[in-house]
Design brief:
By secondary structure, this protein is mainly alpha-helical. Helices cover 63% and strands 0% of the residues. It is built from four helices and no strands. Helix 2 crosses helix 3 and helix 3 packs across helix 4.
């Protein structure tokens, strides 16, 4: 199948650059909503807190070099970090 050549002027931004701009403008999902609530001073829902704790625990796991065997310690540390932001 042959593609037609575009006769018009090419747009300045590509789809990928627009997606990047949108992603940087507003975080998506429960973690993004919880981060917004943190900035405004309201307490996030239990589901949003769980998502923040999960994300933080994974970041701790990654920081340790993805070494297994400390999941419980990572989870407790993540809870301490996240909940301290809302006290």
């Amino acid at each position: 199948m042959a593609r037609k050549a575009s006769a018009g002027k090419k747009s300045v931004g590509t789809k990928s650059s627009r997606r990047k701009a949108l992603k940087s403008a507003a975080p998506a999902g429960a973690a993004g909503r919880a981060a917004e609530k943190q900035r405004t001073g309201t307490r996030p829902s239990p589901r949003e807190l769980d998502m923040l704790i999960r994300k933080t625990a994974y970041e701790l796991y990654a920081r340790r070099g993805y070494v297994h065997g400390r999941a419980w310690a990572d989870w407790l540390e993540a809870e301490r970090i996240v909940l301290s932001k809302y006290r």
